[in-house]
Design a protein that fits this description.
Elements (H helix, E strand, L loop, with lengths): L21 E3 L4 E12 L5 E6 L9 E4 L2 E8 L7 E15 L4 E10 L5 E12 L4 E14 L4 E10 L3 E4 L21 E7 L3
Antiparallel strand pairs: 1-2, 2-3, 2-12, 4-11, 5-10, 6-9, 6-11, 6-12, 7-8, 7-10
């Protein structure tokens, strides 16, 4: 009688599943929407961040002082390699206090070693004494992110006096930007990631 040999079948591993807010199969991208918010430590230091999970922000609004200011919103580090490609979109509401302002948004890569590379930028419309909602499209250079790299949204503003933007994922009323009567206090950024199709 012929003896049957045991056959071993490898157990397939489950592929990594990324959650996207929506996909664009024609472009080969999956888009994740991140919210801008800030945290405050015991010493009162404010840190601006990005998250795909809407949480309460330590302050509803962030401000630039007169002159030229910068706010950097960082995502936590990537735990696996990713590639971005396509056009990012930033949606924000702002008001200039006592003059006019122009907002510029940059998407940047912060490498593990700390090197910062700009991947694209664009300027929004003129912000005045009346709250304004602005949507800024940013064409991106296709860029690979290694494990440990992070993504940064940098907002800069040139203005005569203070400029205030909303950055509350829960869309609560702020002192200057009030969703109940004007525009949302949310700061949203849509990032397209390359799909492996």
């Amino acid at each position: 009688m012929v003896e049957l040999l045991p056959i071993s079948f490898p157990v397939p591993t489950e592929p990594a599943i990324a959650s996207y807010n929506y996909t664009d199969v024609a472009e080969g991208t999956g888009v994740i929407i991140f919210d801008g918010y800030n945290t405050e430590d015991n010493a009162g230091t404010i840190t601006t961040r990005l998250s795909s999970n809407p949480i309460s922000s330590a302050t509803i609004e962030s401000s630039f002082t007169a002159g030229v200011g910068t706010l950097n919103y960082d995502l936590t580090v990537f735990n696996s390699p990713r590639t971005i490609k396509g056009t990012a979109t930033v949606a924000l509401s702002a008001i200039a206090v006592g003059g006019t302002a122009t907002m510029r948004a940059y998407i940047k890569k912060v490498a593990v070693g700390g090197a910062v590379t700009s991947l694209g930028d664009n300027t929004g419309g003129v912000i005045t004494l009346t709250p304004k909602h602005d949507v800024i499209n940013i064409p991106l250079t296709q860029t690979h992110f290694a494990k440990g790299d992070t993504l940064r949204l940098t907002l800069t503003s040139t203005y005569v006096t203070d400029c205030i933007i909303g950055n509350d994922p829960l869309n609560r009323n702020g002192a200057s930007v009030t969703p109940s009567s004007t525009f949302p206090t949310t700061l949203k950024i849509a990032i397209p990631f390359k799909l492996d199709l």
